[in-house]
Amino acid sequence: xxxxxxxxxxxxxxxxxxxxxxxxxxxxxxxxxxxxxxxxxxxxxxxxxxxxxxxxxxxxxxxxxxxxxxxxxxxxxxxxxxxxxxxxxxxxxxxxxxxxxxxxxxxxxxxxxxxxxxxxxxxxxxxxxxxxxxxxxxxxxxxxxxxxxxxxxxxxxxxxxxxxxxxxxxxxxxxxxxxxxxxxxxxxxxxxxxxxxxxxxxxxxxxxxxxxxxxxxxxxxxxxxxxxxxxxxxxxxxxxxxxxxxxxxxxxxxxxxxxxxxxxxxxxxxxxxxxxxxxxxxxxxxxxx
Length: 289
Ligand SMILES: NC(=O)C1=CN([C@@H]2O[C@H](COP(=O)(O)OP(=O)(O)OC[C@H]3O[C@@H](n4cnc5c(N)ncnc54)[C@H](OP(=O)(O)O)[C@@H]3O)[C@@H](O)[C@H]2O)C=CC1
Ligand SMILES: Nc1nc(=O)c2c([nH]1)NC[C@@H]1CN(c3ccc(C(=O)N[C@@H](CCC(=O)O)C(=O)O)cc3)C=[N+]21
Hints:
The chain is an alpha/beta fold. 43% of the residues lie in helices and 16% in strands. Residues 3-118 form the Tetrahydrofolate dehydrogenase/cyclohydrolase catalytic domain.
């Protein structure tokens, strides 16, 4: 079965649009998101454009700040300080990766945790790790769990989840969320031995690597739920570029119980969860009034 992320994301956005309207009429505040993008990677720009459009569609304010590739770390830090202190800005997202001369972790640490809609600040990852309330949780991992639950139902207790990848953006936080859902979690990475054998034990398999079609049908257990996070641009024999995931979709489809496609799976859910976090950040701002 195919898990339709586009449709699920639309449903989530429709629900959020109602919540945004309620929030606006109750508090006379319009939730707002500021996205900062440094440099001119075309793929990043398209992705940021989608975010801006969808933010506005559900009734929130979207600001985009485009900076040249030469932007210094100090300039970015002072911009963040300004945005942190601006009460009309509720969510801040700095598009990653940043140019090599900028220290990403210094930038992430400089974002006010209450405005950190990516959930990458140590305060938010610490809250997630400790199971404390109030964390802004990274968007892609939230999307993965929502899609898994869509197929498997609310209760994931006792299921074996195998995560391929251990980045701070996807692998580690998705593993934490699945653990919170009472899954038995195995985290794998580039140094893992017997990766196919481990994957074959998964009731839920999350692939977040960045290698086109790495996961083959014989890595997948019969009936498993496969969540494909990978976004890989490949050139077809005809010379066109197309997006594929980390899982060989056509092969795995026959074997698994359900699988998310690329495009149209986790990607749209990431953006919908970003909007959800922006509304949560706007709610955070009420506490500091
Ligand atoms: N759909 C969406 O919304 C999003 C999609 N993505 C996509 O997800 C993918 C992963 O992103 P991200 O986590 O940022 O990537 P990173 O490059 O930061 O991490 C990749 C991870 O994969 C592991 N890995 C690399 N090669 C192998 C291998 N042969 N076998 C097993 N593990 C391996 C690495 O291991 P090690 O740690 O040992 O190096 C690392 O932990 C990318 O395709 C990215 O574009 C990312 C964010 C959002
Ligand atoms: N600070 C920060 N936060 C991020 O969340 C972040 C980031 N930086 N840097 C880049 C990655 C990647 N990422 C994607 C989100 C949505 C789609 C998405 O919607 N993809 C569509 C396809 C879009 C297309 O056609 O190009 C889909 O899968 O259907 C893709 C990729 C978020 N990231």
